[in-house]
Known about the structure:
Layout: E1 3-6, H1 14-21, H2 28-49, E2 62-67, E3 72-77, H3 84-92, H4 98-106, E4 130-138, E5 146-151, E6 156-162, E7 168-175, H5 185-195, E8 203-205, E9 208-209, H6 226-236, E10 245-251, E11 257-263, H7 270-273, E12 277-281, E13 284-287, E14 302-306, H8 316-321, H9 323-346, H10 348-353, H11 355-368, H12 370-376, E15 381-383, E16 389-391, H13 392-403, E17 410-415, H14 422-430, E18 435-437, H15 443-453, E19 457-461, H16 467-470, H17 483-497, E20 502-507, E21 516-519, H18 522-532, H19 539-543, E22 548-553, H20 557-564, H21 567-584, H22 590-606
Parallel strand pairs: 2-8, 12-14, 17-18, 17-19, 20-22
Antiparallel strand pairs: 1-6, 2-3, 3-7, 4-5, 4-7, 5-6, 8-9, 10-11, 11-14, 12-13, 15-16, 21-22
This protein binds adenosine-5'-triphosphate.
InterPro entries: HATPase_C_sf (IPR036890), HATPase_dom (IPR003594), Heat_shock_protein_90_CS (IPR019805), HSP90_C (IPR037196), Hsp90_fam (IPR001404), Hsp90_N (IPR020575), Ribosomal_Su5_D2-typ_SF (IPR020568)
Keywords: ATP-binding, Chaperone, Nucleotide-binding
Pfam family, one: HSP90
Amino acid sequence: MEERGNISIHTENIFPIIKKFLYSDHEIFLRELVSNAVDATQKMKRLSAIGEYKGDLGELKVTVKVDKDAKIITISDNGIGMTAEEIKKYINQIAFSGATEFVERYKDAGEQNQIIGQFGLGFYSAFMVADRVEIITKSYKEGSEAAHWTCDGSTEFAIAPAHKEDQGTNVILNVAADSEEFLETARIRTILDKYCKFLPVPVEFEGEIINNPNPIWTKQPSELTDEDYKNFYKELYPFSEAPLFWIHLNVDYPFNLTGILYFPKLKNDFEIQRNKIQLYSKQVFITDEVKDVVPEFLMLLHGVIDSPDIPLNVSRSFLQADSNVKKINTYITKKVADKLNDIFKKDRATFETNWDDINVFIKYGMLSDDKFYEKAKDFVLLQNTEAKYYTLEEYKALTQANQTDKNGQLVMLYTTDADKQHAFVEAAQNRSYDVLKLDSIIDSHFIGMLEQKLEKTSLKRVDSETIGKLIEKDETKDSVLNDTEKEDLKKIYETAINNQNMQVEVAPLAPDDAPVIITLPEFMRRMKDMSKSGGGGMMFMGNMPDTYNVTINANHSINQRILKAKDDNKERIARQAFDLALLSQNMLSGSALTAFVKRSVDLIDKE
Ligand SMILES: Nc1ncnc2c1ncn2[C@@H]1O[C@H](COP(=O)(O)OP(=O)(O)OP(=O)(O)O)[C@@H](O)[C@H]1O
């Protein structure tokens, strides 16, 4: 006999809310219904395991079918099914989650975490796409009668006896006119692929099993080979290059979390590579926007995190304040640091080979997270121009004796472009100084951080001063020129250069140092860099022209020759020497370059 009734008071406003609130995400109905079907089959397994169900389980499976002509989507399972009473209780009284009762009854059997649904939207999300929903279901309980429930999206429902051979549930959606896009098999396949790819029970669509019910993150690391991890990466990102290495996460206290994080080969465009971590709850895909769950600097990693303890359908600000999320954040950071330390200790060669790809994570992490800095300071590497790698400690040991200045400050030299700054790198090497390669965007911040954290240490770009000034020692160099000669030389050069932004100075350098050296002071450059990246209230600096220091080597024979040259030739030679300095730094162009070439031809012609 058919029975009619009203869905409980809680539901008065639920349908408009479901339709409106979830408007943008209608496709989620399929995730919810397939998840319910999967839960029902899992419960069956559970009942069989604890001896409550003695029959043959058969092949537990969920099937999704689309009948475009009849405008119907059916989600079927051979799980526990429901009696008419259970439908009334679990489906009609929607505020009363069936899972709660299930857990109550079986909590002593353990593993109830596996059973509780956490997705919050539930069965009624079906009404986002259907104007009539039917359930035909038969309980696993012996002698149960099948039941047929129908509801048209109002608060009224009908329930009647039905015929169904096997236990299990068919949820039948009569798709609404405004949702017919979901009758396209391609669309359904895409949705299944997104949310159901790793559900723990086989899901069939169009005669095929579309999921991998045993993804590797649910297994023990000891069961898995490197090949397994690499293959899984391919499964997740079919078009990506093989990952460098990975971390298998596995924790059950104080929260539950499993997963695998991969270190990808980094491309230049970091933005594109973000949001490559997928968040699951009990193998159901939730989102790939993991901001707040994963520390910012680790968002460049790829992979999967699965946790039933992450609150899912809550607002962002709540997520940030959630204590589980904070713990998860800390845990992941620690695991990543430990893993890196492990590789560094066990296989430094591999660590060095991969440095180009991982240094951005590590530096970014050190900059943004003090705890990570504390761990990473032991394995962060500095690379010098000879492509050798040192830890901070090792590098200090290497340079301390030779590169400590007269004030006891250790000066580490670096280049941002070993080719362009070649003359300066060579001048440093001539003094047996070591030069680091710090050339990525993040390095300018990294340099600042090192200066703050390392005691009595500064970093200077190799072309920011003449070598004698970069690392000032106590020794004073004798000058071959007296003060009047120096003053004369300065004036000759000033006239020859004729540019206010070039600060000329005459200094006694080594005779084999270059005759003219042009430098952009470290302080000036950093301020300009800062204003370019919009920080530090230094915006005005960005518009100022670069002011270079031009150091004339008093001890170089050319400069002595200039003083002795005929008056009309003095400035010509000075200009030529200055242009050569510009040339060595790639700063000579336009009419100055043309003039230089002409002058050079003249000079050769005269020889
Ligand atoms: N395919 C099914 N087979 C058996 N029981 C089902 C099925 N679908 C739903 N149910 C019952 O209906 C209840 C309500 O489902 P609903 O999806 O609204 O909430 P839930 O699954 O408990 O929690 P969630 O909000 O996570 O979905 C379930 O707990 C379950 O007892």
